[in-house]
Amino acid sequence: MSKNVLILPGDGIGPEIVEQAKRVLTLVNDQYSLGLEFTEALVGGAAIDADGVPLPEATLEAAKKADAILLGAVGGPKWDTIPDFQIRPEKGLLGIRSSLGLFGNLRPAILYPQLAHASSLKPEIVSGLDILIVRELTGGIYFGQPRGVRVKEGGVREGYNTYVYDENEIRRIGRVAFEAARQRDKKLCSVDKANVLEVTVLWREIMEELAKEYPDVELSHMYVDNAAMQLVRAPKQFDVMVTGNMFGDILSDAAAMLTGSIGMLPSASLDVNGKGMYEPCHGSAPDIAGQGKANPLATILSVAMMLRYSLDEGDTADKIEAAVSQVLDQNLRTVDIMSDGMTAVTTAQMGDAVVAALKG
Ligand code: IPM
Ligand code: MG
User: Fold this and answer.
1) Range of the domain at 307
2) What is the mean pLDDT of the chain?
3) Which end of the chain is more exposed for a tag (fewer CB within 10 A), N or C?
4) Do 139 and 172 touch, CB atoms closer than 8 A?
5) CA of 298 to the centre of ligand 2 (A)
6) What is the DSSP letter of 140?
7) What is this structure's pTM?
């Protein structure tokens, strides 16, 4: 039976990086007869321009029907000044995550040895780095109610959001993280702010409860401020990190930079059944959109994650990851990972190189 992959290019560099990732997916689909069919839809700013809303009904329907979703990126200054805060490109992305229940966000930060010199940290601090950040994606302060901007007595405006997690939400993301740790080095660091925020006191309690079910996994806890510091001080102490939506957003950007460039970091966002949306961790980078400067590797690596986690094609995923490693061995670099002695390539040339490596 054929499987449907929904492609959502989005905004900024989204369309150009997705184009390269789609070439890779189309190639392996033909090479290994995966039986994938593709549909495409609008999300984010592109959808606002066409339909007036960031997540048109047709896109949400297509997302619900799809077996997996590949997303580029959303957002840009063009849509930042729309007075209605609901009409923001980001709401399209958040709407898909929440409507599809994609609560489990996996963000692996792996340093390719070839890029040790592209990291802003010393090679000895990052070489061999392999961290998995497990971020809760459909709850926490991103979605908590009440939220808004209100006018207090005396006409003073006040903005407010609510940081809330119930124990079931904590438990299900905890399980994802413990299971992942079990497949890796069996070390899990739960990141919270339990010295200040009650919601994360509960978070810590539930993680402790879960730890009893996973005696083979060593659980530790860290406050988020310390975790941010440790990530840039001694990142190799981490194996799997689990945290809430907002802390995970911030820590995963920091972890990404350790690997040389945020342009290298893929992600998977999974529901309870393993259906998922796959996207690079970086944003839409409107400043470089359309110039052929964007690094398509994070999106190509997101395709590999899609094959592994949602399409049961782990071997094909391995081949794509090996092809990415091979193009780095060929010293090909987009600007974000460029260093002395390397060959600068455009977005499309990087795609060409991965396609050529896969063809062998
Ligand atoms: C991410 C992004 C999104 C987030 C934005 C675009 C809404 O930064 O996926 O990390 O904050 O989750
Ligand atoms: Mg982010």
Assistant:
1) 1-104+273-360
2) 96
3) N
4) no
5) 14
6) G
7) 0.95
